Amino acid sequence: MKKRTHWTVSALKDFETCPAKYEWSYLFEPKDWAAIGYTVVPAKGSPAMERGTEIHQTCEDYVKGNVTQLHPAIGPAWAAWITDLREIGAKSEEAWKFDQDWHPWNPGDFGTLWLSMKIDAHYPVGRDILHLIDYKTGKPWPANIEQVEVYALGAFAMYDDVHTVHGSLWYLDHEEPHDKTFTRAQAPKLARKWEQRAARLLDSTEYPKKPNRFCGWCPYSHKKGGPCGYPT
């Protein structure tokens, strides 16, 4: 079984929702699946996830100028906003990686990768403000706004001259963005919060099943032929 030394927002969300799901998604290798009687690894995707990935990809390609049309599911209001991103030269789909001291990290650097994130789009507003955007599909979940804290911490680490980060979740199947703003003065407290949560994930050695309201959608659920006994 793999041993991970870094985390992502998605991985942490899976771990906190159900440690077993995290183990099966991120740590299990084919030999581990074979050991519990699975010759084919359960697929992690779903039609909704595949649709979301497709919409994300067209947004990325459009903002970068690689395609001239957005996904047909994107309505005219969002299309206008995404067109604005392209016209102002917003950076699209950048991968940010950091070591445990929140220093930007690249392969070959001294030290170990600790945190990885991908920023769907971002651009400066004036001299010291950065606007970060994360595309979302499906139903808005209020808890998702919390992940913007991690992106804001990444922005403060990447850009020394940024003092304010305005983060937005763009729910492309709905009408309104969900926004939250952070200042650099908030960063130390936020960093401690996420460092503690990440430590619980990375230091864990046991991954018990944790029944929850999302079990019916889990690819490892009993009803979908997975190794979990829930839901029955």
What does this structure look like?
The two termini are 27 Å apart. This protein has a five-stranded mixed beta sheet with strand order 1-2-3-4-5. The relative contact order is 0.16. The protein is built from seven helices and five strands, in the order H-H-H-H-H-E-E-E-H-E-E-H. The chain has two domains: 44 residues, no CATH class; 150 residues, no CATH class. By secondary structure, the chain is of the alpha+beta class.
* Structure classification: alpha+beta
Whole-Å distance between the termini? 27 Å
Strands side by side in the biggest sheet: 1-2-3-4-5
For the record, the count of structural domains works out to 2
SSE string, helices as H and strands as E: HHHHHEEEHEEH
How would a textbook summarize the main sheet? 5 strands, mixed
Tell me what portion of residues adopts beta-strand conformation.
15-25%
Query: Total number of β-strand segments?
Result: 5
Low-confidence stretches: none
Q: Which bin fits the share of residues in helices? A: 25-40%
Q: Write down the overall geometry.
A: globular
Q: What number is the mean pLDDT?
A: 94
Estimated radius of gyration: 19 Å
> Total number of helical segments?
7
